[in-house]
Design brief:
Elements (H helix, E strand, L loop, with lengths): L3 H16 L2 E10 L2 E9 L6 H17 L10 E5 L10 H7 L3 E10 L2 E11 L3 E8 L2 E8 L3 E6 L4
Parallel strand pairs: 2-3
Antiparallel strand pairs: 1-2, 4-5, 4-8, 5-6, 6-7
Helix pairs in contact: 1-2
């Protein structure tokens, strides 16, 4: 059986494509007594609140048309931007992040540290290659993808 989020993603895809948006993440979670269906969307030039509201309304209308309901209980639908420091989870996320500053957390230390930040130069199925700036010097480092716990875009200070 397909999960609720997979079904919603499949339903949302034509709406996303219609507007030139893409899905960054989707979650269906219970927080306290309430259920939330959250979609994080974006587009190459960045997304604004009006576009999120438009997509929210269109998806809500489409969900209301479904019989039987895809979601068995009452829920809140939230559509938003993933934010400036959004997670990088998919291959498409990585493709869009090449040339951008990212934060990488590792499961095990490499060169005596578990956190790396730098510009994502490139990647393949085995490694990410970052350009770091430390102590007024630039260096490149390869990080094994199997050792990566989490990745996200980062703001460089």
């Amino acid at each position: 059986m397909q999960s609720i989020t997979a079904k919603i993603q499949q339903m949302a895809q034509p709406l996303l494509e219609k507007h030139g948006f893409y899905l960054v993440d989707i979650e269906y979670v219970k927080e306290g007594a309430n259920w939330y269906l959250r979609l994080y969307i974006d587009k190459p030039a960045g997304i604004d609140i009006e576009e999120c509201a438009l997509f929210n309304q269109e998806l809500s209308d489409k969900l209301d048309e479904q019989a039987p309901d895809l979601i068995p209980n009452a829920y809140f639908l939230e559509v938003s931007s993933p934010g400036a420091e959004r997670p990088l989870k998919t291959e498409q996320d990585l493709q869009r992040a090449v040339g951008k500053y990212i934060h990488v957390s590792l499961y095990q230390k490499q060169q005596q540290q578990k956190i790396f930040e730098g510009v994502l130069l490139d990647y393949d199925s085995q490694y990410l290659r970052l350009r770091q700036h430390q102590n007024n010097k630039f260096s490149e480092i390869e990080l094994a993808r199997k050792n990566i716990a989490a990745m996200r875009l980062a703001i460089e200070f």
